[in-house]
Specification:
By secondary structure, the chain is mostly helical. It is about 85% helix and about 0% strand. It starts with 8 loop residues before the first helix and ends with a helix.
Length: about 90
């Protein structure tokens, strides 16, 4: 025995479909997370710069929320891709 596994039949088809689906959903999740993160950073900078003083704290909070959503979406995307590739 060589220790190499070969998928055949239904298993091969299922892995192909779930891999494609996992990579697609993971990619879209990454994209949405990136857009939300960039938007949060942009809004945070705008609020902080336009209002000044106390607005800086509000702006930083907005940017932090956007960054948190981006990080979370990145983790979900990677988990989805891993599941699509049948990784544990």
């Amino acid at each position: 025995m060589t220790g190499i596994e070969h998928d055949t039949g239904a298993t091969k088809v299922a892995k192909g479909v779930t891999s494609t689906l996992g990579n697609t959903v993971g990619g879209l999740t990454n994209t949405v997370g990136g857009v939300v993160g960039a938007t949060g950073r942009g809004l945070g900078e705008t609020v902080g710069g336009a209002v000044g003083g106390p607005g800086k704290s509000v702006g930083k909070g907005i940017a932090d929320v956007g960054g948190g959503v981006e990080d979370g979406a990145g983790r979900v995307a990677q988990t989805t891709k891993d599941a699509g590739e049948w990784k544990a």
